[in-house]
Amino acid sequence: MEWIIEHQLLLLIPIVSAIVGWLTNYLAVKMMFYPIQFVGIKAPYLGWQGLIPQKRKEMAEISVDLLLGKLLSVEDLVSRLEPDKISQAIERRLKQVLRKIINDVMQESAPKVWASLPAQGKNLVYARVEADIPNVVEKLVRDFQHNATEILDIKELVVDYLIAHPALINEIFLTAGNKEFPFIIRSGLYFGFLLGIPTMVCWYFFQDWWILPLGGLLVGYLTNWIALQIIFEPKDPIKIGPWNLQGMFLKRQDEVAKVYSHLIERKLMNSENIISTVLYGSGAEQLWELVELHVNDAIERYVAIGQPYIGLGLGADNYFKMKALAVKRIFDSSEKFLLYMHDYADSALNIGDDLREKMQSLSPAEFENVLRPAYKQDEWKLIVTGSVLGGLAGVIQLMYIFMPT
Questions:
Q1: Is 238 strand, coil or helix?
Q2: How far apart are CA 295 and CA 330, in angstroms?
Q3: SS3 letters for 250-276?
Q4: Neighbours of 38 (CB within 10 A)
Q5: Which residues fall within 8 angstroms of residue 101, CB to CB, at 6 or more apart?
Q6: CA dist., res. 282 & res. 279, Å (int)
Q7: DSSP for residue 48
Q8: What pTM did the predictor assign?
Q9: Mean pLDDT throughout 285-310?
Q10: Rounded to whole angstroms, what are the CA distances from 162 to 232, 245, 357, 405?
Q11: Domain-by-domain residue ranges, the chain?
Q12: What percent of the chain has pLDDT over 90?
């Protein structure tokens, strides 16, 4: 009877090893993503933040270098925008906004002149401005396209947005690796059981106290390490008989490219975020200069051709004040009408399909950087954590199962 109990306890070793392998891999995956914000005491550094949220700035920079270096060009993207289509998309709302701006600017800079102008005269001013909208929009869009690299900083867009939205970078990685991360967790169970068998054999023959803690430590270490190797190695397919051996993630390049590019287009590099970066990013000053140039040019034409007596009635000071105020109001109100171009811009830019096609053409080594960039240098933390937990499980097993007395 004692012999049977002893051998039953021996069989617990690979079972416990399987549980340890599953638990350490589960924790390793969770520790990659959570918590999103640092939990603990920052000074000294006692606590934890998910590796991916913690490294989001570095990862964003690597992703942008990949996107801009290999896949997308800012000049190419903005060249897809057609001025006449933009004008059609925003025209109705822009007319409403411009009427209010004209009225407000004239009331503030030249109230007497504007009050003395009959309704018919004001309508002529509105009509003249509205008729010129396609012309001004075309000139402004063309100049924007020629100066796109100064005005639109894609790296700033991606990095700043991901820093402000750490949950999004988690979503990107979890979506791209939606088969690999569950595999890491499941594989801990399988490899843990297999690695527990040598530990069981060693314990049967020697029963030295250090065997179980060492076995647990090795299980925690190897289950994490093996899972990562299976996902990312070998990079290039190796043909063994009828099978092609290649890292799981790299083998799914076409599938991953599809879901990754869709998510990037929908949540990160969409027209809403691009326009926000253009209006408020580091290139906003250059955009302001373009707006000022074309608005001033338009006002000069309106005053010279449409209503020359307005310029004389305003006086030089009020005239320049009016132009400056008009530029400011148009720039400040730009979101009110530019939001109407989102649907057209997303369709014209077509970032998702373009990104997918180019990602599918990357080499395996380049494609690996989609999912395994900056956090690669910190993978050892996950493996060491798994090793420590595995070693503790071996100590607990030793103390409470095999040496209860």
A1: strand
A2: 9
A3: HHCHHHHHHHHHHHHHHHHCCHHHHHH
A4: 14
A5: 326, 329, 330, 333
A6: 9
A7: E
A8: 0.80
A9: 76
A10: 25, 35, 24, 55
A11: 2-402
A12: 10
